[in-house]
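Follow-up to my post from last week.
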Amino acid sequence: MPRLASRPADVGQRFEVAALVAVAALLVLVPILRLVETAVDEGASQYGAVLTAPGLGEAVRTSLLLGVVVTAVAVPLGMVTALALRQPQLPGRGFWRVAVLLPVLVPEFVLGYSWQQAYGRAGFTDTLLGVPFPGVVGPVGVVVVLVVNAVPIAYLLTAVGLAARAEPDLERAARASGAGSLAVLRTVILPLLRPSLAAASVLVFVVTLASFAVPQVLGAPAGVDTVTTRIYADLSLGAHPNSFVEAVTLALLLVLLAVVVVAPADAVLGPRLRSVRVADSGGSPVAVGRRSGGGWVALGLGSYLLVAVGVPLLALAGASVTRAVGLPPAPDNWTGDHFSQLLDQRTFEAIGRSVGLAVVAASLLTVLGAAVAVLERRRAGRSLATLVTLTLVLPGSTLAVALLIAYGRWLSGLWLILLAYLAKLWAFAHRPISGALDRLPPGELHAARASGATAVTAARTVALRPLAPALVAAWLVCFVTALHEVTMSALLYGPGSETLAVVVLNSQELGRIGPTAALSVLLTGLMAAAAAPLWLAFRRLGAASSSDRELAGVR
Amino acid sequence: MRTQRIAPGAAVLGLLLLPVACGDDGGSSGGETITLYTCVSDTTVEPVIDAFEVSTGTQVDLFRAPTGELNARIAGDVRSGGLRADVVWGCDPLTLQGYVDQGLVGGWAPANAADVPERFRTDDYVGVAVLYLLAVHGDDVQPPQEWSDLTGPEYADGVALPDPAFAASALGAVGYFEGQSGYGLDFFADLEGNGAVQVASPDEVATGVAQGAYKAGITIANSAYALQGDGSPIGIVWPRPGAVAIYGPVALATDSEGSAPAEEFITYLVSEKGQRLIGEVGSYPTLPGVPGPTRPEDAPVVYPDWPAITAGQEDLLADYQQIFGG
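User reply:
Got it. Predicted complex:
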């Protein structure tokens, strides 16, 4: 009888949701509640003073405005990039698909700093060409660099969405009916991409709210104040208990801002953006775009990447080999000393620990992200998506403190750092997978189960192949982000468990641009080397799929 | 499929990492172990720790981070069972006084603390290194002879100074000028009116001046001389009435009172041997007569009134931020 037959499945589903909620509680709820407890117990008398402090209102407005503006610019840019890279006549398409991800490999603090070196007063362009861009230090510079930082995320989510949700037959039918490219985009492609675009928007908004390094480097000298820079200022003078409580209160304010934006978006838009694919169409791919447009697209991409990443990294590389600050980066002033200073056993050990941590964290995060993507579609698990986003918005220093307060009695060192990565980056793994998941045809899964396959076998043989690009993309983003995370691991490390963050912060604090630039170049190169095999795997997975030729981002 | 091999492979890698995760205390040599929390740079702290470990057999477990992260770590410790450090070596008296006020450190000073000038110590902590805030200028810029020169037309739109909301050394300087006749907070208002820019740290000031982004600025002597030694085109001035001295104190954790190795470590830092080593690795010692980095013979130095600054630091910062924002 159907009711009796469904009861074990119901119990199983409830258990799965309960287990995941328990993990989310440990990683997200408990640390946030401990912060709330701290703010309530120690700061109840200060709320009025904290929330009415001069400049806080403006800092909140600045943070929100940055979030909105960066999202409004970066998500369309990422989408346009993903669509442009579908064009088969684009020269060097494989190269561009890798190149557009370059900013992901550059840590946020390096990106802001390298833009200042490249375009600021007495920077690279000023020294070599006599052309400075003073606006790079100020609100415009902050927005531009945060957009550059966010476009690869939006591109990746859109590309994954295209890979999983492409409907070649629908596009072919529209073209055969006389629709032009714009009409196909508007009526076929964009509606299918809506979940991916929504996922990208949420992620970019929250990441921008939480950004600190770029507003501090490029915004603070021009008086741009955000909630995150105020939190860091409070912690810098945090030996005074009032300052620490103020920092915690502001961090919880950020969580509230994120909830106010993300929760309604997830609750209202989420179900409406999903659609059900009856079966995999499996048609042959569609050639899109005019034959003559590829050269202009390549030129546009090349120009954007040159300005956004190429020149700043060149400026950084120049600083890393220049003997002293203020000397022109000419061969006469070149030295390898900054790099040789880095090449000691301590740095290698730190790199090894960081890489290992990032691998483990990314692997666990991919599983956790997939679990939320699956279970959020059930009634009991609907709020999971919003829940795991809350810790992404918390500044790293505050999340680290929250985990220390919650678990510091029992855990330390690398275990705490791993927990911090899982808590912080869960949303990074969840959103790309979620954006691709709902296009799996449920009928095929049911057919596999009805034929006797276990849930794991059914998932592995039916769901894994179309989801593979999303899973690998999630793994890649989590790996790279964990590897160049600085604040949490610098705060939580224990004796003998120094990660790369400790080396980086010490170098920065010494104020020597040369070693800091050398470390940044090393870090970027290291991540490119580590990410390359993964990218090859990503490409092969895409090639094995039946709709591989139109998978944006995959050859 | 390759995909299904990735997750088990990663899990195996994770298992291989467990020894790294668990066994990171390096294995005690058999002697005692103390834990040091500090914001002092590695270039100073590491050689000092190495020398102490060799001479005493005591192992020193180090947690080193910038002041903001250090404060956050200690705040986390306090709310999860208590401070885990035996010794705290700070970069400014304001931070250490904050820990004293919370009952985390203090209540003990080594016997040789009396050798350190009174201006660098209290009953709860003793300074073992000093930072000096002074002026730097581009090679092609007229050197300022007095601090007030920076408000003049020759430095219009070209001065950088560190943000006291981020750098306690800068807050100490603000506190010093606030109490000085002829200066006060009007000095900073005049700087702001002259187009001065505020950046986060003294190091950013030094590198900005070296790169030519600013004409002059207020920074710490260590950064300035290091850049000049590398060949950066900057000049260094100890302007009148004096470079502002910010001492970095060390204190014993209250929970470690009676810990002989911890007390021995602090005593070592204050001793002539420890002070000479601190001077050799690039920090200015507090013990008179011990050589350190470059300091011109007649260089004027001034000393902030730290108790007054500590008592009024919130108002001081608020008043300052009316001028420069933040």
